[in-house]
Design goal:
By secondary structure, this protein is an alpha+beta fold. Helices cover 22% and strands 30% of the residues. The termini are close together.
Length: 131
């Protein structure tokens, strides 16, 4: 897929692993991925209390659902990230760099007070274009 990173010098540089915007030729299938959490296949939560372990499990879950939909992580053009502690931004982006190449997807990250389970620290939903 031909993704192009959009960058303007009139805005500050992204402080993490994300693009200001991404352009994609809109031919193909759109995949809307529901919020993935750090749940393992058996329903237990991976990495309780460990944001890096949970981010890694979330990215693995994203990879699994993208493969099931006929795509890869490279097809993801946008993510929305919900975290319990925004101060863990750097740790989260360190893991994201392991999973998302260049250009990285457009992204929004917000802090929330609660998730489905008190053990969950992060949830990521995604939009992908598979050509």
């Amino acid at each position: 897929m031909n993704q192009q990173q959009v960058h303007t010098g009139n805005l500050s540089q992204p402080s993490g692993h994300f693009s200001q915007a991404i352009t994609v030729e809109a031919r193909g299938r759109l995949i809307f991925v529901s919020g993935m959490t750090a749940r393992r296949p058996d329903g237990s939560v991976m990495g309780v209390g460990d944001i890096a372990a949970q981010t890694r499990q979330v990215c693995e879950n994203l990879r699994e659902v993208m493969q099931a939909a006929g795509g890869t992580l490279a097809d993801i053009v946008r993510v929305d990230v919900y975290v319990r502690n925004i101060e863990q931004f750097d740790q989260i982006h360190k893991v994201r760099r392991e999973y998302f190449g260049s250009p990285p997807p457009a992204s929004t990250m917000v802090e929330v007070t609660k998730m489905v389970s008190p053990d969950m620290l992060i949830e990521i939903s995604a939009i992908a274009v598979v050509q």
